[in-house]
Amino acid sequence: MSDPVLEDRRRRASDDKARAESALAERGEAARILAGDLRFRPDALDVELRARRNDELHNRRDALLAEAGVALADQESALKAQRDLVPRNRQVYRELADDELPIDRADATRREGVADAESQRQQAAVTEAEREANEAVALRDAAKTRKDLLAVLADALDTLAPITEEGATAAETSTIVPFAGSDEDARRVQTGVSGALKTAATRFTETERHLGDLVNALRQYATRTQFEAAGSLREVITTGDAADVGRRAGELAEQHHVRAAVLREDLKAISLDQEILVTDLAGQVRRVLDLLKKVPATSQMDRSLGGWGGKSFLTIAFDDISGAPDELARRVSAEVDAIVARGGIPDGLATLKKAVHAAVPGGFKVKVLKPTVDLREERVPVSAMAKWSGGEKLTAAVVLYCIIARLRARNRTRELFSNSSGALILDNPLGKASYVGFLALQRRVAEALGVQLLYTTAVRDLKAVGTFPNVIRCRNFAPAGSDRGFVAAVERVGEAHGKPIDGLVSAARVVRLEPDAPEDQAEPEGALREPGSGAEHDVVA
Questions:
Q1: Counting Cβ atoms within 10 Å, is residue 150 exposed (0-12), middle (13-18) or buried (19+)?
Q2: 3-state class of 54 per DSSP?
Q3: Is residue 532 pLDDT above 50, yes or no?
Q4: What pLDDT is attached to residue 381?
Q5: pLDDT at 155
Q6: Would you say 173 and 55 are in contact if contact means Cβ atoms under 8 Å apart?
Q7: DSSP code, position 90
Q8: Which of 433, 490, 487 is nearest to 459 (CA)?
Q9: pLDDT on residue 505
Q10: DSSP character at residue 223
Q11: Would you call 510 helix, strand, or coil by DSSP?
Q12: Closest-CA residue to 126 (of 79, 71, 74, 77)
């Protein structure tokens, strides 16, 4: 905005101020003091009340001014009548005209009586005119006093809240009723209204400050990260104007009530879903615990296994809670709540494991029989397996698999065939553990538990391989023109086939019989290749 415009506005504001101060000075010191007092009263903050009271006082003042004007007109009329009846240049005594002279004494007495009656009449008229004039002056003075009072009251309301042409609608103006009380009533009402406005202004200021504090507290509460999903509802509170938030508090509260109702329904549905999940998961945990309780009986060794006979290879001790379904559901529910709090979608098996551990907070104490050739009973914690040899670990792993296979077979609704727990294929176990005693132990336990063991190996340890009754030599080959590979059995040996492996050549020595024999001697027909030199593999069972 340019400087000339600002200067013009400043000049006009200065002129308005000067005119206002001049008008206030004309009212006198009392009016100035009253105006200063009314200026800071809280009544000025209610625009509608100020407009209504100002119009009432203005209408009352106009009515009184009209009454004063009528009184002044009546006074002037009375004074004129008085002047007409009593001229200023009248003669108390005057000379009588010749035709007015009495003829005789009786005529003079008659004329004197008529004159006295006329004089009394005129004196009465003069007295009445003086009375009316005095009343008119009193009415004028009262009207002026009342006019001054109403002017002070109206100016007080004007000082509190100047009413512009746009301040009140036509409907509001038409409903204004003129004040019908006395001057003292008007003064008392004005004082009461001013006090009420002051009290209202004080309460408004306190309420506005309290509202600001509440809006600030609401904003701090709404900025928490847990309400980020609130979207537009949160944005209105955190970024909107404080006054606008205060005015729309009811509307915003209603929107949040609606949102809260929707969320409660969602939470109710989620709670039902969670209850279903907890019930199902608790059932799964109960089945797992029941399965773990069956492990010792399922892992009981056959009587033919010497020192292990009748003993449980695997024992699991834990606090069984499956008989208390309510407590089990409570522990599982707590774990589900913890999983939900961490976020993400966990794997089903991982969730079941967590639920099982939550149901048994004391943990599981697992012990196994340590494999020995003489089947001596030596039960150790499962954690001690880390220090075992390769053969001991392999033997324990085979036994554990056989136990799991039997447990699984017993829990199936339809077994493959009687006394069978399936088959176990081992990938080159002889590369790590080829001790014949452990191999025999593995086969005995597997046979007792109804598991068929299949060992695959490329190691030419004939002593270890020779312990198996069924050995199948296999070879890889690929047909010409094809990208597919096959494994074919090329030889079957072992006790099951009447070809003991003990008769095979395990080593050969080349001897020169003639000095001039060729240096290149053919490899004896029965010699074996070094391990890994060919593509042959043995499958033993």
A1: buried
A2: helix
A3: no
A4: 92
A5: 67
A6: yes
A7: -
A8: 433
A9: 46
A10: T
A11: coil
A12: 79
SS (H, E, C) 311-375: CECEEEECCCCCCCHHHHHHHHHHHHHHHHHHCCCCCHHHHHHHHHHHHCCCCCEEEEECCCCCC
- Residues contacting residue 443 through CB under 8 Å, at least 6 positions apart: 453, 467, 468
Average the pLDDT over 255-266 and give the result: 83
Lowest mean pLDDT segment, chosen from 64-68, 177-181, 186-190, 370-374: 177-181
**Contact between residue 406 and residue 451 where contact means Cβ atoms under 8 Å apart:** yes
Number of H helices, E strands in the chain: 14, 8
Candidates 32, 388, 38; CA nearest to 192 is 38
Task: Tally the C-alpha atoms within 13 A of residue 294's C-alpha that lie toward its C-beta.
Answer: 16
Per the model's pLDDT, the better-predicted residue between 163 and 478 turns out to be: 478
Residue 208 and residue 45 in contact, taking contact as beta carbons nearer than 8 Å: no
Per-residue DSSP letters for 26-51? HH-HHHHHHHHHHHTSGGGG-HHHHH
pLDDT of residue 139: 86
d(CA 273, CA 270): 5
> Which amino acid is it at 191?
T
CB neighbourhood size of 55 (10 A): 21
Is the per-residue pLDDT at 508 higher than 60? Answer: no
Which residue, 322, 323, 321, 358, is CA-closest to 337? 358
**Buried/exposed 491-515: b ≥16 CB within 10 Å, e otherwise:** eebbeeeeeebeeeeeeeeeeeeee
pLDDT higher than threshold 60 for residue 518: no
DSSP of 379-422? EEEGGGGGGS-HHHHHHHHHHHHHHHHHHHHHHSSS-SSTT---
Cα 204 → chain centroid: 32
Percent of the chain residues past pLDDT 90, beyond the cut: 1
Strands 423-427 and 365-369: unpaired
Nearest 10 degrees: Cα torsion 28, 31, 36, 40: -170
Give 279: exposed, middle or buried? Use CB within 10 Å, 0-12, 13-18, 19+: middle
Side-by-side strand order, sheet with 314-317: 314-317, 365-369, 379-381
Q: Give the whole-angstrom CA distance, residue 462 versus residue 455.
A: 14
Tokens of 360: 């048994």
pTM of the complete model = 0.47
The predicted model gives 416-426 an average pLDDT of 68
Cα(308)–Cα(369) distance, rounded to whole angstroms? 8
Q: Which residue, chain included where needed, has tokens 């409570």?
A: 330
Per the structure block, which two tokens stand in for 427?
A: 């990938």
Residue 230, pLDDT > 70, answer: no
Instruction: Tell me the CA end-to-end span of the chain in Å, nearest whole number.
Output: 103
Q: Cα-Cα-Cα-Cα dihedral of 392, 394, 398, 401, to 10°?
A: 110
Q: What is each CA distance from 326 to 269, 273, 279, 300, 322, in whole angstroms?
A: 22, 18, 10, 33, 9
Sequence-distant (6+) residues with CB within 8 A of 362 are: 318, 319
* Enclosing H/E stretch for 492: strand 486-493
Hey, is 540 helix, strand or coil?
Answer: strand
Please name the amino acid found at residue 29. E
- Single-letter residue type at 56: E
